[in-house]
Amino acid sequence: MKNIYVTQPFLPDLGEFTALIEEIWASHRLTNNGPLHQQLEQAVAEYLGVDHLSLFGNGTIALMTALRALDLKGEVITTPFSFVATTHGITWNGLQPVFSDIDADTFNLDPERIEAAITPETCAIMPVHCYGTPCDVDAIGEIAARHGLRVIYDAAHAFGVRDAGGSVLRHGDLSVLSFHATKVFSTLEGGAIISPDAETKQRIDRLKNFGIVNEVEVDGIGLNGKMNEVQAAFGLLQLRSVDAALAERARVAARYRAAITGIDGLSCLSPGMAARENDAYFPMLVGEDYPLERDALYEALRERGIFARRYFYPLISSIPAYGDLPSARAENLPVANRIGAQVLCLPIYPDLTDEDVDRILEAL
Ligand code: T4K
Q1: Ligand 1: residues whose CB is within 6 Å?
Q2: Fewer Cβ in 10 A, N or C end of the chain?
């Protein structure tokens, strides 16, 4: 029986990709804001309904650049329930991460706990729209305004997610996307920063290109965060079928949800937390009423060729680099610790067939 992994990227037509690669060959333009990069930047911004977007070579460099662009010093309040890149981006900027607990219904930062974590050293909040579920952006925005803090959303999971007012990426000072191969929309590796205005976008575009202004001027300490033409070519083709891919993800999620509500001890996030969801992940919680503990279920599924993943276990606050921080103590993060011990992300991707889903449900 074939193995089923937590995700599988959907690939564009190889003939169409080859045609674009031939264009790249003919032009000899491989990177540094080439024509396909320019096309993709505009096309992704249009698709998402945002005005100012900068493409990046990956999401982690985009996170690092976003924090750098705001010229921050001090502590950044963030979630322990995410991929390690969220906190690493903070630390690579010489900033101090401070972990704050999550909400049990959304798995995103709990605004009340953010407020309690603020000190005179706090300069910013970095929430994550975890699994693509929007954060409580109004409460976070209000807290940030009251305390004079910047907000940088790690929106790595939130491609295409909309709330009642439009793209969820418009909130905060900056939002950062990932276009990794495992994401809803991919450029092989890739990412983007959404800026509120043209001036901020220009600062970010310079920072991702070493700080270069022109042949003789370098403004600030930039890095190399650029996306190349091959990545952009892949992205242009992916964008054409992203709506179809989202529809297929919704099909899988609906099938899981309908069945899982009938299995004692298993629960999943409520649908409808965004006006438009992206079903980037399908997390479920393995509760006490289920006959197996989460890790035993994870192993039992593996034995059946089903590679679900424990995103996000261990918590970022539990890895050696961060485990000694005062905010990393388990008593400070009771909800994140509980969810981290119970969560299991089931396979979800456009090409997962109804038969595959039924095989997974049968195993559960
Ligand atoms: N912030 C958040 C909240 C994030 O979740 C991430 C990335 C970032 C920031 C950083 O963005 P990037 O710098 O990555 O753009 C994966 C991804 O590598 C990572 O991008 C992602 N989050 C994280 C949640 O998941 P792994 O170590 O679990 O990936 P891996 O290699 O085990 O892949 C999972 C499964 O996907 C494999 O079993 C098979 C399948 N797969 C994977 C790849 C890479 C494929 O079928 N094809 C592939 O090419 O981290």
Answers
A1: 5-9, 58-60, 82-83, 85-86, 128, 154, 156-157, 178, 180-182, 191, 307, 311
A2: N
Burial class (CB within 10 angstroms; exposed 0-12, middle 13-18, buried 19+) of 265: middle
Rounded CA-CA distance 250/246 in Å is: 6
Average the pLDDT over 326-333 and give the result.
Answer: 98
Contacts of 71 (CB under 8 A, 6+ apart): none
Distance between CA atoms of residues 51 and 351, nearest Å: 32
Instruction: Give CA–CA dist 324/100, Å, rounded.
Output: 15
| Alpha-carbon span 283 to 303, nearest angstrom | 20
Distance 181 CA to ligand 1 centre (A): 7
- Picking from 170, 175, 171, the residue whose alpha carbon sits closest to that of residue 144 is 171
**Contact (CB, 8 A) for 260 and 267:** yes
pLDDT at 271: 85
**Residue to substitute in 90, 107, 180 for testing ligand 1 pocket (most ligand atoms within 8 angstroms of CB):** 180
Quote the pLDDT of residue 169.
98
| Both tokens assigned to 181 | 């191969």
pLDDT digits (tens, 9 = 90+) for 74-96: 999 999 999 999 999 999 999 99
Distance of alpha carbon 176 from alpha carbon 88, whole angstroms: 14
Give residue 1's pLDDT. Answer: 84
**Could you give the CA distance from residue 190 to residue 187 in angstroms, rounded to a whole number?**
5
The total number of residues written for the chain in this structure: 364
Tell the residue nearest (CA) to atom 48 of ligand 1.
181
In this structure, which residue's CA is closest to atom 20 in ligand 1? 180
Residue 96 and residue 107: Cα distance in Å, rounded?
22
> What angle is formed at CA 311 by the lines to CA 151 and CA 348, rounded to 5 degrees?
105
| Tokens representing residue 71 in the block | 């010229």
